[in-house]
Amino acid sequence: MKYYLGIDGGGSKTSYMIISEDYTIIGYYKSVSCHYMQTSKDHFQSILQEGILSVCKQAGIQIKELSFSVLGLPGYGESDEDAEYLRNSVRNILAPSPFICVNDVEVGWAASTAIEAGIHLVGGTGSIAFGKDHHGKTARAGGWGDFCGDEGSAYWLGKKAIEIFTKEADGRLTKGALYSIFKEELSLNSDFEIIDFICKKYEMKREKVASLSMLLYKGAEKDIYAQEAFEAAAAEYSLLVKAILNMLYFNQETLIPVTYSGGVFEAKKYLMEPLRDLLTNLDKRLFIQEAKLRPVTGASLYALWHIENRIVTEKLNKLQRIEKHMNIY
């Protein structure tokens, strides 16, 4: 029996899964984030080692029995030096079992399309896109980080929310629902307290600023400026799709699925509807499709694909049923 390990290393948690060659989930485990930029390079290896040993124990196998592993790591591939360090750290844990490390957006694509041609958008704290065409060529766009980019992300929307509040506060924009929501939800006695709140209480932390996108969503029902912010985010995601289209060669007669993951896309009415219209205008072949699998399940399936070179539809359906029954997230 062959065994395949998939890892989805997100910004808030790391998920581990082992499936067998018959697409049965035999191990599933979660730990803290292994993102080396949020923890440290030293902690990266210790976190991964604990998680891999735990999921192997649950599966009743040893590391050396793994046929192949795929690790989706945030930030991977953006620095050659860091990538080499991460690979060596993983090798220290998995050797002699074969593996590959990829950016976590690629795992998102693998999960959402079940290893089929298409484009995947990630809209979490950051934003990035990944695509693979019918010829096997891949491309990515975005993922430049909060200072250089991440347009459309929760962090970007959180900053937009702050901008709208301050403009509504001093009269550059007409006061709307978002102004009142900020005052109430953040317990601001005066408008200028927003500065101390962001700088001292939130310490300008990326994930804290990103959480303000939820207030933007709350205000969008009655605040036109909040609605416009989500429409602007939709435009940024359409640009990511356009960039991927320009780099790849999808068959002219075939529809192209655009999948998505991340909390930003929960703003269905305000984000997804304008995005759907923008994609239709961009290319009639594009259509929005919900993810077929969770990212960690996609990572383990991707590992299986690297050995088997094919996905069996009947077994994929079985994997989807098992995943749903186990409430994988």
UniProtKB/TrEMBL annotation:
Superkingdom per UniProt: Bacteria
Could you state a single Gene Ontology molecular function term? N-acetylglucosamine kinase activity
Q: Which residues form the ATPase BadF/BadG/BcrA/BcrD type domain?
A: 5-303
* Name by which UniProt lists this protein: BadF-type ATPase
Q: Which organism is it from?
A: Alkaliphilus peptidifermentans DSM 18978
